[in-house]
């Protein structure tokens, strides 16, 4: 009887871990609403944000996924006029991690031309989702 209980507990643990991993994996790169946060160029130590939008990436020195994310976001920004990509290294700026509630790297904030955070992405962003958010920002600024 003891072995059957142990095997049952092990199976339950594997199932729970698998479900948790699938949920976590599904949330990586997903776009969430940005809320009412506002970002200024001074907040992140740059001269100016993008005229129509900014892809604000938070990274650290030891983040293995951050360089690929920077290349992808830089490429998307280069496709669109008025869109900038800014990569902020949080290694020596823990204050920014707290201020912008960054709990993982990379984290990307999609900020409109007025500095309002329109979307937040935890983990490597899906390029099509970033482009879709930029399209939404572009449409709302022409209304």
Automatic annotation (TrEMBL):
Residues in Thioredoxin domain copies: 5-139
UniProt keyword annotation of Isomerase present: yes
GO molecular function: isomerase activity
Membrane-spanning ranges: 6-24
SUPFAM superfamilies: Thioredoxin-like (SSF52833)
Pfam families referenced in this protein's UniProt entry, alphabetically: Thioredoxin (PF00085)
Coiled coil: none
Protein's UniProt name: Thioredoxin
Gene3D superfamilies: Glutaredoxin
Entry keyword set: Isomerase, Membrane, Transmembrane, Transmembrane helix
